[in-house]
Amino acid sequence: MHAYRSHTCADLTSQNVGQSVRLSGWVHRVRDHGGVLFIDLRDHYGVTQLLCDPDSPAFADVEKLRAEWCIRIDGTVKARDESLINSKIPTGEVEVFIRALEVLGSASELPLQVFGDQEYPEETRLRYRYLDLRREKMQANMTLRSDVVASIRKRMWDQSFREFQTPIITASSPEGARDFLVPSRLHPGKFYALPQAPQQFKQLLMVSGFDKYFQIAPCFRDEDPRADRSPTDFYQLDMEMSFVTQQDVFDTIQPVLTGIFEEFGGGRSVDQDWPQISYKDAALWYGSDKPDLRNPIKMQVVSEHFRGSGFAIFAKLLEQEGTEIRAIPAPTGGSRKFCDRMNAFAQKEGLPGMGYIFWRDQGQGMEAAGPLAKNIGPERTEAIRQQLGLGVGDAAFFLGGKPKGFEAVAGRARNVIGAELGLTDENRFAFAWIVDFPIYEKDAETGKIDFEHNPFSMPQGGMEALAGDPLEVLGYQYDLACNGYELVSGAIRNHKPEIMFKAFEIAGYGEDEVRKRFGGMVNAFQYGAPPHGGCAAGIDRIVMLLAEESNIREVILFPMNQRAEDLMMSAPSEPMSDQLMELGLRVIPQDQ
């Protein structure tokens, strides 16, 4: 017999009754039923019930067992009484009578319990992550992650992609976030960087003649943490293709992701139609470039109904250039109680409030109610209702100003309204491509033109587009949104040096600076670069959605905390003095 086990803790069934078996695992829990001890033994695969009574030569040793001790047992498989069968687990028809026991690893008093669903502070869970990972939910999440990655790989190989690994130590390259710098021992005073993404290398692979590339790539960014973003490192499905258009990229990645969400989505429906929505329309309709389309609410501009109206706040606001009023329809939200609740939401968001109108049946017909309705009168109110397609029992909420100042709050309000009114379909994955991103933006204070989005995207219209108004230039850049999260980001690349130099020149970067920052890629493009494009899909976020988690740390094996600290490994740590000397570095104490 094997030194540790003849079966796993998920293998035994009624077919094994009478057999002598050997199992190894962790003591999940111990129950004493009048001198008969029952132990749930757990390994990665499942749970098997053990029992021991005073007739067993191992009884004295079994009495000493405590939760999470790692043990090996020899025993005999017995059938459970019919009334005691546990149909919830594969081994529920049997139990194993312990004849011999060996403790492989005893456990000290536990800082958190593995058995049960108790909640523990995040600090405790991350400091003792190896215990936290033993819990059933975490085992399931990490198994799901592994299976998703394996399935992604297979799907990419099936589409004739080849997997290549790009460097982890490279040159610093500003790509929208802070680099993690690595000092060079052999070149004192110089630094490598951990790659924010394999962006330049995957483009260089296309110049090298490889037609389709992918990898499950680690990316490193020194960012502030969020619930849906790791503050240090993350993994993405990174892919690039030559001789493709934007639509080719969409047609390639859609079946991969559709298949993943159908395979691991737990029966939730997966939208097959992925609309393409312009960045401008996404901001207008949803207040976000990663809209949750499970929520059917679309915001609309209603400025004309308030211009010159009796509602002075909006009327005066509209006299200013670049302002507008938007309405958030709220089907079934037509009660003063709900409207007051949304008004309180707006105040929590830092606004003085949120105007509203709701429509009710007064017996003699429909009536518009609320402060706004009284101020603008029945004719304007009726025009708003008809534009929004609302009726009795419905409401609408209003925000105004310069769009960039209120869009984000409007988007959050839309999400809250959809959730509270039960309009959002929770049992669905809804995807949308966000396209036509503007390449440039103007600083409101200085008037300086700079890149708003990816500077390496090919401008729509090429060099000719760059001769016009920079703020009108759109890029072949795209994101994929799913249920309110950005899952994919990508672009058709600017592969022509002359267009690249012009694009950077508009943003105030001379050719010398571009060559200095991105010399490797610029030089390569001078030797017959093909048109190419691709995208990257966030593995962590995909698994987070599939696992129905709201915090990305629930699907990462060993995540950092909110302060970018690894409590388990005590990182970051202070370097040893000899390490600093070897690198020619000195740490300057920071004022506290």
Overview of this structure, please?
By secondary structure, this protein is of the alpha+beta class. The protein is built from 17 helices and 26 strands. The strands form 7 sheets. Strands 6-9-10-26-25-24-19-12 form an 8-stranded mixed sheet, sandwiched between helices. Strands 1-2-3-5-4 form a 5-stranded mixed barrel. A hairpin with a 2-residue loop joins strand 1 (20-33) and strand 2 (36-42). Helix 4 (136-158) runs antiparallel to helix 6 (246-264) and helix 4 (136-158) crosses helix 16 (539-546). The protein is globular, with a radius of gyration of 30 Å.
List the helices and strands and how they pair.
Layout: E1 20-33, E2 36-42, E3 47-52, H1 59-63, E4 70-79, E5 94-105, H2 122-127, H3 129-132, H4 136-158, E6 162-163, E7 180-183, E8 191-194, H5 199-207, E9 212-220, E10 233-242, H6 246-264, E11 269-270, E12 276-278, H7 279-286, E13 300-301, H8 303-306, H9 312-317, E14 324-330, H10 336-348, E15 355-361, E16 366-369, H11 371-388, E17 395-401, H12 403-420, E18 428-429, E19 431-435, E20 437-438, E21 440-442, E22 449-451, H13 462-466, E23 474-475, E24 477-482, E25 485-492, H14 497-506, H15 511-524, E26 532-538, H16 539-546, H17 577-583
Parallel strand pairs: 3-5, 6-9, 11-18, 12-19
Antiparallel strand pairs: 1-2, 1-4, 2-3, 4-5, 7-8, 9-10, 10-26, 13-14, 14-17, 15-16, 15-17, 19-24, 20-23, 21-22, 24-25, 25-26
Helix pairs in contact: 4-6, 4-16
